[in-house]
Amino acid sequence: CIGCKGCKSECPSNVDLTRLKAEFDYQYANQNGVAFQTRVIGSFARLMKLASKFPGVANYFVKSEFFSSIGKSVLGFAKDRSLPKISIVTLTNWYRKNYQPPQNPIKKVWLFADEFIEFNEAHIGIAAVELLQKLGYDVRVIDHPESGRSYFSKGLLKKAKAIARKNVSIFSPKVSEDELLIGIEPSAILSFRDEYPDIVGSDLTEKAKKLSKNAFLIDEFLASEIEKGNIKSDQFRSEPKTIHLHGHCHQKALSSLSDTKKILQFAGYKVLTIPSGCCGMAGSYGYLKQNFETSMKIGEMVLFPRVRSASKEDIIAANGTSCRHQIKDGVKVKALHPVEIMRKALF
């Protein structure tokens, strides 16, 4: 089990081995202690938050072959795996300084600023806010904890539970059928739908369940608004370009790629879905030196060859931060998040 959660939809019995693995890791750590590497990976968001205070310094160490090789050696990461860079400005700080709500908004939405978009790929979060704002939606970004995804993935369930409880407590009074919670990174926002209701504790279970019904991927939200007629095709430039779309495993397991394909086609693109399973990265799995070769072999099964065979004029799209990272390392191609493409296509 590499923790991709693909089995939840692909297995005929819908067995969630990722969740079983997390429980095993939790019980094992209770008996044997938590390894240093596990603690570091679990604390990903905290480390990124610290690094975001000094992004120039952090990125110097990330880009330096000497210093990054030392860091990867200490952490047990593969020497050929690149490390994530830090955004010069966090999404939340950009929002506070730059956001102007639209006049007479269609509706208000709450954006979950997950740890990946907040610290490593703020440009995608900015594109999402601008896209929604220009389409007529009032986007609200507030302070909240990380998603807890890295803690879930490493079996650090007590920490994951504490984070889930905080997020449910923050958003449940604000989010409703009229004011949805939307997110960009599938593995983060879908935690509200998947793990949160089962881990928060009995006193918050009902609130978590209600919140889970009003938490959506941004792709799902945009597709729904298109259906309602709130978004018009003439708001986008029609570009006769082809997009090769790779889907995140959590999205395929807990949602689908149909909404992503729909919104990109609505903006005028031809969309070809890459018939791939997991990209091979699966969060932290592809970083570890003992897994790197297998990670690349998984990518070579379908994803890498399809990206290589695409025309230079074609666009490669992937919803997941891990997927985009894997494509960059495996094929040296920059994959875009669908909201980046939609933002660029706006008049």
Overview of the structural elements:
This protein is an alpha/beta fold. The chain has 21 helices and 7 strands. The strands form 2 sheets. The chain has a 4-stranded parallel sheet with strand order 2-1-3-4. Strands 6-5-7 form a 3-stranded parallel sheet, sandwiched between helices. It is globular. It has helices spanning 7-10, 17-32, 36-42, 44-51, 55-63, 65-75, 91-98, 115-119, 122-135, 149-153, 157-171, 186-189, 196-199, 205-212, 218-227, 249-254, 258-266, 292-301, 303-309, 321-331, 338-345, and strands spanning 107-112, 137-140, 181-183, 215-217, 242-246, 270-273, 315-318. Helix 9 packs across helix 21 (338-345) and helix 15 (218-227) packs across helix 17 (258-266). Helices cover 52% and strands 8% of the residues.
Q: What percentage of amino acids are in beta strands? A: 5-15%
The Rg value, from CA coordinates, equals: 20 Å
Euclidean distance between termini CA atoms: 44 Å
User: What is the tally of beta strands?
Assistant: 7
Task: Name the strands of the widest sheet in spatial order.
Answer: 2-1-3-4
Helices and strands, in N-to-C order?
A: HHHHHHHEHHEHHEHHHEHEHHEHHEHH
For the largest beta-sheet, the strand count, sense and barrel status come to:
4 strands, parallel
Descriptive terms for the model:
347 residues, alpha/beta, 7 strands
Layout of secondary structure:
Elements: H1 7-10, H2 17-32, H3 36-42, H4 44-51, H5 55-63, H6 65-75, H7 91-98, E1 107-112, H8 115-119, H9 122-135, E2 137-140, H10 149-153, H11 157-171, E3 181-183, H12 186-189, H13 196-199, H14 205-212, E4 215-217, H15 218-227, E5 242-246, H16 249-254, H17 258-266, E6 270-273, H18 292-301, H19 303-309, E7 315-318, H20 321-331, H21 338-345
Helix pairs in contact: 9-21, 15-17
